[in-house]
Amino acid sequence: MAQQGTATARSAQNASNVAGLARFFPEASPVRIPVQLARIVHSEEVAPKPASANFTESTVIEFGTPREVLFACNTPLEFADGVRLRNSDGSLDIEASVVAVQYHPGQTIVAARFRREVPNWIVKS
After folding, report:
1. Domain of 84: which CATH number?
2. DSSP string over 28-62
3. Does 120 reside within a domain?
4. For the chain, what is the domain count?
5. pLDDT tier at 124 (50, 70, 90 boundaries)?
6. Is position 97 within any domain?
7. What is the tens place of the pLDDT at every residue in 59-98?
8. Segments forming the whole domain that contains residue 90
9. What pLDDT does 53 receive?
10. Percent of the chain with pLDDT over 90
11. Nearest to 66 by CA among 123, 125, 21
């Protein structure tokens, strides 16, 4: 005899939490862009060294504006941290600064603003 059960998908919860942050970005459009995430770390020894970014996590950009991306991640990020996001074919490889953060158990919801203009990365119809 078959038994029925209900499971809550983690990705649905992530999307819901990201949607909550997206309401503060009126231009935000829903998107689903899988990316690799890296926190950018600058070494400040005697002389500043170039930023290093090791991709540590796969995530999905859930919402975007012409200037920002919104996503959920496990990486501990704070306001003004730098991140690098890259999709699988490298057509999107951007650096951004964290402009908003919401903390939830086991995840961080992030809005990050591009450090340079990224033309036509998101197209509204």
Report:
1. 2.40.10
2. -EEEEEEEEEEEEB--BSSSBPPPB--EEEEEEEE
3. no
4. 1
5. low
6. yes
7. 999 999 999 999 999 988 999 999 999 998 888 999 999 9
8. 11-114
9. 62
10. 58
11. 123
46-55, 91-100, 102-111: least confidently modelled range: 46-55
Q: Is residue 3 part of a domain?
A: no
Supply φ then ψ for residue 28, to 5 degrees: -65, 135
Q: What is the mean pLDDT of residues 41-50?
A: 53
**pLDDT value of position 122:** 75
- Do the domain assignments include residue 70? yes
Which pair of structure tokens corresponds to residue 32?
Answer: 């689903």
CB-based burial, 39-69: b 16+ in 10 Å, e otherwise: bbeeeeeeeeeeeebeeeeebbbbbbbebbb
DSSP E strands, 1-125 = 29-40, 55-64, 68-73, 82-86, 93-104, 107-114
Sign of the alpha-carbon dihedral angle for 87, 68, 31, 60? positive
